[in-house]
Write a structure and sequence with these properties.
The protein has 183 residues and is of the alpha+beta class. Helix content is 13%, strand content 30%. It contains 3 helices and 7 strands. The protein has a 7-stranded mixed beta sheet with strand order 2-1-7-6-5-4-3, covered by helices on one side.
């Protein structure tokens, strides 16, 4: 059942969402020397040329574990689409911030808990990712909270709380919230 829910959710949103594209605030400086080869822009979490990013800036080493359109999951930063759980997916995300302790974005919310209504008319929300946890030497946000959801009825908010409890998937098992994490 979980696999069928995941397949249903990863197909949500239509269009092409590529989380490898740089998010807001990510810029690649032009080459300063004439004739120097141009380097494609870096993906979030990578340096130019596709190499892992060096640690340094605020939040530079905190990721979200994401299965959106990738069954095996991956480390991700500022994704346009995020599968938060087997029941909940965020799409059309525009990131306002991404730091060491939290990240905030606005976008669309869909899930199995609100079908069929939210499939074609997703809720417009603001979501905050928080509570980084380290898994195999990599920090991942482990919680999410929808802080704004105009037009989302209270019964739908309660269903969302019941199915996920605000937990994000982690790479420990790739299938759900951490067994030893807060609930």
């Amino acid at each position: 059942m979980a696999a069928s829910c995941l397949i249903l959710l990863t197909g949500c949103g239509g269009g092409s969402l590529d989380s490898r594209a740089p998010g807001p605030g990510h810029h690649t400086a032009p080459s300063t020397s004439p004739g120097a080869p141009s380097t494609p822009p870096a993906s979030p979490g990578t340096a130019p040329g596709g190499h892992p990013a060096e640690s340094g800036g605020e939040g530079s080493e905190v990721y979200v574990y994401n299965l959106f359109r990738r069954e095996q999951g991956r480390e991700d930063r500022e994704p346009e689409g995020l599968t938060a759980s087997e029941f909940t997916t965020f799409t059309a995300l525009e990131w306002d911030s991404w730091g060491a302790d939290s990240a905030t974005a606005s976008g669309e919310l869909r899930g199995t808990w609100c079908l069929p209504g939210c499939q074609n008319e997703p809720y417009q929300v603001t979501v905050v990712l928080s509570e980084p946890r380290t898994v195999d030497d990599t920090a991942f946000f482990s919680r999410y909270e929808v802080i704004e959801a105009p037009g989302m009825p209270e019964d739908q908010r309660e269903l969302l709380r019941q199915v996920d409890g605000g937990r994000l998937m982690l790479p420990e098992d790739g299938s759900g919230p951490p067994a030893d994490g807060p609930s």
